[in-house]
Design goal:
71% helix, membrane, 165 residues, 7 helices, EamA_dom
Length: 165
C-alpha cells in the first residue's frame, strides 16, 4: 500500500535508493535498541550494567560531535549564500524535545520486563508527528492514501502490543 501511495508522487519502491535507506534505518534502530538494552542490563544478567543517564549522556555527546562535523563541513562553508543563520525559538524545541524523548526511551529500556519490539515500535511512532507536520505546514498531497497507510502502521503497533500481553 505504501508503494501505491508513493507512485502517485513519482517514487518507485524498487528503484529508489532512499527506500532502502528507510529499511536500513528501521533495521539499525532495532539493533540500536538491543545494544542499548545490553548496555543497561545488570552485569549479573550478562549486560554492561550502565545507568540509563550515562547511556543518554554518551549518546548526546556523540550526537553533538556528529552534528558539529556536519555543521562545519557542510553548512559553514556556504551558509552566507545558501542559508544564513536566523535565531528562532524552534531551535530550543529541536534541542529539548529529542532529549526528553530519548530520556523516556532509555528509561523504558531500563525496565526489565519491557519488550524491545514494543519500545522500538513506539519510538518509530514519531511518524505521526511527521505526518501531521507535513499535512499542516507543507500541504502534502495524497493525504487520504497516506492517512490509510498511517492508520495501518498504528494498527500494527496496537496488535503488537496486544500480542505481547
Amino acid at each position: 500500500m505504501l508503494s501505491n501511495s508513493s507512485k502517485k508522487e513519482g517514487i518507485d519502491f524498487k528503484h529508489d535508493h532512499w527506500i532502502y535507506m528507510v529499511v536500513g534505518s528501521a533495521f539499525l534502530g532495532a539493533v540500536s535498541g538491543l545494544y542499548d538494552r545490553y548496555l543497561m542490563a545488570p552485569v549479573n544478567e550478562g549486560g554492561a550494567g550502565l545507568d540509563k543517564m550515562i547511556v543518554q549522556s554518551w549518546y548526546t555527546f556523540y550526537q553533538c560531535i556528529m552534528m558539529g562535523v556536519v555543521l562545519i563541513v557542510l553548512w559553514w562553508p556556504t551558509h552566507k549564500k545558501t542559508t544564513p543563520f536566523h535565531w528562532n525559538w524552534f531551535i530550543v524545541g529541536v534541542s529539548l524535545f529529542p532529549s526528553a524523548a530519548d530520556f523516556v526511551y532509555f528509561y523504558s529500556l531500563s525496565i526489565p520486563d519491557a519488550m524491545i519490539s514494543i519500545v522500538s515500535m513506539v519510538r518509530r511512532s514519531s511518524v505521526v508527528v511527521s505526518f501531521l507536520f507535513g499535512a499542516a505546514f507543507f500541504h502534502e498531497k495524497n493525504l487520504k492514501a497516506k492517512t490509510l497507510d498511517l492508520i495501518l502502521v498504528l494498527l500494527g503497533m496496537i496488535f503488537l502490543y496486544i500480542g505481547s500481553e
